[in-house]
Amino acid sequence: MLPGVIGTFQALECIKLILGVGDPLVGRLVLFDSLGMRFREVRLRRDPHCPLCGDAPVITDLAQAGTAAPQACLTPTGR
Fold first, then answer.
1. Domain check: are 62 and 77 in the same one?
2. What is the span of the domain harbouring residue 60?
3. Residue 76 and residue 57 share a domain
């Protein structure tokens, strides 16, 4: 059941982006507690100084970034 719920959410997000309707989850993360049947939304802020996705990215190819890429979007506090 859990894969079906998450898969439906993912498909709905794709449809919203393709059709340009609704409010897509850009900058937001939805957490689903399947045991408690609860949803929680967390807003994420973009770090303008991030070397991967910031205003002036220095990492442009993930294949060449090596092990630095997974850590690139972490804030200095480690999130």
1. yes
2. 47-79
3. yes
Cβ atoms of 27 and 44 within 8 Å: the answer is: yes
CA 28 from centroid of its chain's CA atoms: 7
My answer on whether 30 and 19 are in the same domain is yes
Interval 2-57: pLDDT, tens: 889 899 999 999 999 999 999 999 889 999 999 999 999 999 888 888 888 889 88
Report the alpha-carbon distance of residue 68 to residue 56 in Å, rounded.
16
CA separation, residue 65 to residues 46, 55, 68, 79 (Å): 20, 18, 6, 21
Task: Work out the end-to-end distance of the chain between its first and last CA atoms, rounded to an integer number of angstroms.
Answer: 31
Residue type at 39 in one-letter notation: F
Has this prediction a pTM greater than 0.70? no
**Amino acid letter for position 55:** D
